[in-house]
Amino acid sequence: MRAFIFPGKRWQRFGLAIHAAVFSLLLLALSGAACAGDWRSLSNDGIHDPTSPAVKRLMEPRDGLSRLPPDDVGNQVRWVHALEQGLINPRTNILPETKVDVLDKDILMDLYGSMPIVRFPHKAHTQWLDCKNCHDQLFKMKTGTSGISMLNILDGEQCGLCHGAVAFPLSKCDRCHSVSRNSPVVKSGGVGDVPKGGK
Amino acid sequence: MSRACWRSRIAGRCGLLVMLLLPLVQPVQAEYGDVVLNRYAEKEGMRPVVFPHWFHRERFRCKVCHHELGFKMRAGSNDVKMNDILDGKFCGMCHNNDVAWGPENCDLCHSGKQGLSSGIYGGDRTGGPGRW
């Protein structure tokens, strides 16, 4: 069988194997490079008409995104980090009378599953969003009454309305399922609302 | 040079060829979160609209559009008409030559390929039963 896969004498087989290994590594490196930090130009992104005058005038994703903290999914930017580090300062309101609320409270969820517990940080969300974007149409105000399920989320409901469309995708399990079931905050009965940064 | 050695060289060259061609065969993909609006545009003889979430998000928090301006979160659930924009609603709340350039710059928004269906685009959507 081996002779069938690598025909020839032993040293020739060795040479072939080295070739294959080197090329596999190069292939891996190259495909990795094609994913990380590789923003498509507007003329080649599959949705812009390359003949549209906009393609020459609009900002290219690379020019806007490459200076921000990198990620390996989504826009390849850690948006929350970019905001926290002051690298971007997006406006909170257009109308002067709009009330801008930020809530700094973490919620622990999924307390009885097998994955690590979910820590939902209100702060990171309310820095971007208004309370009314989620409450009460997506989630009820009272912790534990919203019937959140991974199936709904994967179906584009609840968290999945944004996560998987504009916010980091659902393939990053451990960004939400981030608290060990053995952590002190859980063992001390820290269900529901917990102090900020509870781990 | 033996036949096996040539075989080895040919295998190597094939690997190199695959490596060089790989970037060319990757699927074409929009930037994550790009939204195409084409409910009315193409019927009215314009290119579909491409809305880049990433560009706006660097300058405005989600709540500006999804709370103040009244855009519902689900792509496709907003009935955005050009007259509304000209009246200062939806995009027109900023694209008014005050906050951002005005609606007379038709081509800057109406820049999509013909035939695109409305919805949210971008290559990094999670697979599975998601609906958009």
Structural summary, described in words:
- Chain A is α+β, with helices and mostly antiparallel strands.
- Chain A contains 10 helices and 4 strands, in the order αααααββααααβαβ.
- Chain A folds into 3 domains: 2-35, no CATH class; 42-84, no CATH class; 106-194, Cytochrome C3, CATH 3.90.10.10.
- Residues 28-34 and 195-199 of chain A have low confidence and may be disordered.
- Chain B has a domain at 35-120: Cytochrome C3, CATH 3.90.10.10.
- Chain B has 5 helices and 3 strands; from the N terminus they run H-E-E-H-H-H-H-E.
- Chain B has helices at 3-25, 53-57, 62-68, 82-86, 106-109; strands at 35-37, 49-51, 119-120.
- In chain B, strands 2-1-3 form a 3-stranded antiparallel β-sheet, with no helix packed on it.
- The longest helix of chain B is centred in the N-terminal third of the chain and has 23 residues, at 3-25.
- Chain B is elongated and about 80 Å long.
- Chains A and B meet through helix 2, helix 3 and helix 4 of A and helix 1, helix 2, helix 3 and helix 5 of B.
Which characteristics define this entry?
heterodimer; A: alpha+beta; four-stranded antiparallel beta sheet; 8% strand; B: mainly alpha; Cytochrome C3; 5 helices; disordered C terminus
Pick out the low-confidence regions of chain A: 28-34, 195-199
Tell me the number of helical segments of chain B per DSSP (H or I, 4 or more residues long).
5
Measure the end-to-end span of chain A. 53 Å
Multimeric status of the protein = heterodimer
| Overall outline of chain B | elongated
- Rounded Rg of chain A: 24 Å
Coarse morphology of chain A: extended
Report the helical percentage of chain A.
25-40%
In the residues of chain A, how many domains can be counted?
A: 3
The proportion of strand residues of chain A reads 5-15%
Q: Number of helix segments of chain A?
A: 10
Query: Which architecture of the domain at 35-120 in chain B per CATH?
Result: Alpha-Beta Complex
Q: What's the SSE pattern of chain A?
A: HHHHHEEHHHHEHE
Specify the structural class of chain B: mainly alpha
Structural class given helices, strands, pairing of chain A? alpha+beta
Say how many strands of chain A there are: 4
- The H-and-E topology of chain B, N to C, reads as HEEHHHHE
Low-confidence parts of chain B lasting 5 or more residues at pLDDT below 50?
A: 126-130
CATH homologous superfamily heading of the largest domain in chain A: Cytochrome C3
Profile the largest sheet of chain A.
4 strands, antiparallel
